[in-house]
Amino acid sequence: xxxxxxxxxxxxxxxxxxxxxxxxxxxxxxxxxxxxxxxxxxxxxxxxxxxxxxxxxxxxxxxxxxxxxxx
Length: 71
Known about the structure:
This protein is of the alpha+beta class. It contains three helices and three strands; from the N terminus they run αββαβα. It has a three-stranded antiparallel sheet with strand order 1-2-3.
């Protein structure tokens, strides 16, 4: 049986925490901040957890994920 390939785009954007939850960074933080409110920028600073409904989509793209592993 051939090896499964990890989707590199997914592995760069999502991190599996020690408890197995999937963390990601919010969007709209890199540029054009003058058009966003202070509240939008403040809420986008923190990492977020992926909801349970989308969890299986990401885990299929990361076949060799380790809990707590950053890659």
